[in-house]
Amino acid sequence: MRFDSRMLSRRQFITHSSVAVAALSAGCQTHRSSKSMTASTTQRPLIVSTWPFGKPANEKALATLQSGGSGLDAIVAGIGVAESDLSNSSVGAGGLPNADGVVQLDACIMSGPGHQAGGVGAIEDIEHPIAVARAVMEKTPHVLLVGAGATQFALKEGFPEKDLNTPQAQAAWREWKSKQTGEKGHDTIAMLMLMPDGNIYGGCSTSGLAYKIPGRVGDSPLIGDGLYVDNEVGAAGATGVGENVMRYCGSFLVVEYMRRGATPEEACAETILRTARQDPKGIDLSINFVALDKQGRFGAAGVGKGFDYSVTYPGFSQVLHSLALSNLEVKVIGGHIR
Ligand code: SD4
Known about the structure:
β5 and β6 form a beta hairpin. This protein has one domain: (Glycosyl)asparaginase (Glutamine Phosphoribosylpyrophosphate, subunit 1, domain 1), CATH 3.60.20.30. The protein has ten helices and 13 strands. The strands form two sheets. An eight-stranded mixed β-sheet has the order 4-3-2-6-5-1-11-12. By secondary structure, it is of the alpha+beta class. α2 runs antiparallel to α3, α3 (71-84) packs antiparallel against α4 and α8 (250-259) crosses α9. Bound molecules: N-hydroxy-L-asparagine. N-hydroxy-L-asparagine (SD4) binds next to β8.
């Protein structure tokens, strides 16, 4: 299936309105060809991840590659930076706990070559769920382990047991517990990587929604939801309210739009608009996507004000602002996706 002319005019609408503004405000116009306004680079490796805290993670991933590590080593080391950052209350150690005050983490990893995947859901007491996800992928015939089974597997594999709660996270939980309301911040890291040989890798790691029901698993460890890699096309990752991603297989959809010719930014936008068109919540979804493709194009889109994402390649490492999608775009272009 190809984009029809109606699709093209909607794409032009996106390109010439918010994308242009987002590109200029991000100061990245030098990376967009004047014709398509598409962000791209010929530099490899290209590493794209969600949020400003993705920047040090990207840089660690790049350094890992430059010192001879593999793509998977780089994903694990890069995401590991966010997982170990105690000031980050939404990934790894220091993540806000569930309703019982227990930190439960979700993560997954994908290798484009061989189309391999592994993940863990609601794992406890393990600082680096991304590394456990890799072990699930490489050492078991399975894709996803959850709960006590995931924790037991990690311990058996030699991952150290660690109390992931910080005094700050415990205090925030006690505050929430007494009022049953409060800050429920949540920012997942999804990292995508295009290698010099054209292979693509990705990973995703989160503590999930703060104060979630114990056992709740979000989009982040689920292949096709929080992350999807297709070595022929590209990769996508999600951050935001997982339930609003999971009901639409968000990252898979982004990759499928790219397969049909959309740029990464257009594909992220099309996915959000299609979701908003169908969903009872409309645009009020709190979802965001990052994507890159096989040609080295990259982009992102988010609802409302959009979100910041990090792009790193040799000689360049910056936080950029995504395309922002509002009800205007849903009304004008959201209802006609084929
Ligand atoms: C989840 N998607 O567990 C994650 C949370 C997140 O930005 O990404 N927040 O629903």
